[in-house]
Write a structure and sequence with these properties.
By secondary structure, the chain is an alpha+beta fold. The chain folds into 2 domains: 38 residues, Orthogonal Bundle (GTP Cyclohydrolase I, Chain A, domain 1); 138 residues, GTP cyclohydrolase I, C-terminal domain/NADPH-dependent 7-cyano-7-deazaguanine reductase, N-terminal domain (GTP Cyclohydrolase I, domain 2). The strands form 2 sheets. Strands 5-2-3-6-7 form a 5-stranded mixed sheet, sandwiched between helices. It has a two-stranded antiparallel ribbon with strand order 1-4.
């Protein structure tokens, strides 16, 4: 991760602890700045990374026209850029291949890269769709994210059972009928 400054993070966390009236050197907190720096290094590992790199080299279909590829229930976590609190959820991603397909493990890597930075769920949804559409030359893309936000579940409104659903559709899946069929498959499983 380029630009990651561990010592600045540790100093900032110690300052936050002092600012809330705690003693950052007390036994229970003495290693907290280091632990937070470890967490932040992981949480923000996608900063400066290109999600297109995660697609690798898509494979040509060689004369075949593939139908929809749908990956459901891809777990992800990100950090809300407004409160620096985590949001956790599942992604459902469908694409209608053009002339190329990609290994199924590549799509979760794209999601991981894009979610490992300060984010808004709405933007994350759009960025995943844009990466797949452009990087694969897909004829259609649908991305649905369903996530619980700590800023909603643990503070303010404290809606512990609340989730947020966002959707981005491109190409053939911008059609309401095609999109509805996929949303049904996501929600109920494959019939």
């Amino acid at each position: 991760m380029t630009g990651f400054d561990r010592s600045r993070i540790e100093a900032a966390v110690a300052e936050i602890l002092a600012a809330i009236g705690e003693d950052p050197s007390r036994p229970g907190l003495a290693t907290t700045p280091s632990r937070v720096a470890d967490a932040y290094e992981e949480f923000f590992a996608g900063v400066g990374k290109d999600p297109f790199d995660e697609l690798g080299e898509p494979v040509p279909l060689e004369g075949h026209e593939a139908e929809t590829v749908l990956l459901r229930d891809i777990r992800f976590r990100s950090v809300c850029e407004h409160h620096l609190l985590p949001f956790l959820g599942v992604a459902h991603v469908a694409y209608l291949p053009g002339e190329r397909v990609v290994g199924l493990g590549r799509i979760p890597r794209v999601i991981e890269t894009l979610s490992a930075r300060p984010q808004m769920q709405e933007r994350l949804t759009e960025e995943i769709a844009d990466t797949l559409e452009s990087g694969l030359g897909a004829r259609g893309v649908l991305v649905v994210l369903d996530a619980a936000h700590s800023c909603v579940t643990t503070r303010g409104a404290r809606q512990t059972d609340s989730t947020t659903v966002t959707m981005a559709s491109r190409g053939a899946f911008a059609d309401p009928v095609a999109r509805a069929e996929l949303v049904t498959l996501i929600g109920r499983g494959i019939a």
